[in-house]
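Figure 3 (text version): structure tokens given as input.
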């Protein structure tokens, strides 16, 4: 693991990796908790979406892209801002990198602890919903709770569309809301776990169009706390202000829609990470 001696002149930085704009929901939490941490972004747009692809092709791809983008950015910490990638490739990423790797874990444990009705919904990509990692998480932490699994690949697309400036309507969300609230036990759901980093970007719309008020819980704040913990652990000193963000994409971004989506962090577009 690196330590303070290896980072004397460089502002500490983290690279947030995802297939698309999901990294933004994680970055907002980190920015809020650790404003002076420099954030870079690694977007595997050349392989988006992840959630519908097989484990066999995704795992090596994630390791290859995330390690190349870590090398290109020189970041101190890799934040896997993608549940689909985290639930699939965390051990391989930790093995491939000599730096800390922080991965998003679906917020099953807090949801299981905090539900009052004993029924929670887990909304994620098809990959995450069906993953062994997720099943084991439920067995370990949500024993005795009813967990309604809701694969919602269309929410990934809708989050991308929203960040391109499109409006997400009640009709767009209706099929997912049906699957949450009108499945067996859906009338008792009081917490929905947003287990894909794209989904917190639609929290307002989900809350607005849902038939009743529930909690929409994600792991962004927990990730930011973990990043903070690593900065302390590595004795990395933060400057007064974060340096400009950089954006690494695996494929060109000709209409600059990715660059524009990340503009709130003032990234300088850079394609692709070799
Ligand atoms: N943002 C991603 C996640 O957290 C994946 C979206 C996708 O590419 O399917 O799962």
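Below: residues designed for each position.
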């Amino acid at each position: 693991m690196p330590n303070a001696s290896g980072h004397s002149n460089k502002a500490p930085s983290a690279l947030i990796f995802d297939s698309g704009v999901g990294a933004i929901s994680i970055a907002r939490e980190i920015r809020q908790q650790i404003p002076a941490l420099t954030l870079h972004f690694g977007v595997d747009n050349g392989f988006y979406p992840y959630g519908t692809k097989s484990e066999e092709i995704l795992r090596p791809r994630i390791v290859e892209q995330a390690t190349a983008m870590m090398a290109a950015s020189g970041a101190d910490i890799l934040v896997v801002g993608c549940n689909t990638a985290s639930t699939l490739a965390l051990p391989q990423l930790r093995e491939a990198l000599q730096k800390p790797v922080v991965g998003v874990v679906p917020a099953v444990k807090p949801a299981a602890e905090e539900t009052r009705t004993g029924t929670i919904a887990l909304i994620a990509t098809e990959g995450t919903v069906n993953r062994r990692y997720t099943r084991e998480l439920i067995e370990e932490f949500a024993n005795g709770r009813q967990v309604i699994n809701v694969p919602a690949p269309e929410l990934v697309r809708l989050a991308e569309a929203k960040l391109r400036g499109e409006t997400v309507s009640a009709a767009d969300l209706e099929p997912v809301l049906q699957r949450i609230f009108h499945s067996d036990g859906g009338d008792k759901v009081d917490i929905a776990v947003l287990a894909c980093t794209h989904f917190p970007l639609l929290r307002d719309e989900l809350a607005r169009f849902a038939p009743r008020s529930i909690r929409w819980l994600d792991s962004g704040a927990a990730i930011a706390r973990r990043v903070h913990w690593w900065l302390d652990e590595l004795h990395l000193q933060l400057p007064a202000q974060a340096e400009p963000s950089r954006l690494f994409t695996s494929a060109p971004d000709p209409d600059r829609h990715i660059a524009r989506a990340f503009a709130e962090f003032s990234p300088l577009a850079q394609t692709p990470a070799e």
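Strands lie at 13-18, 38-43, 77-80, 101-103, 119-124, 146-151, 191-194, 215-217, 246-249, 268-270.
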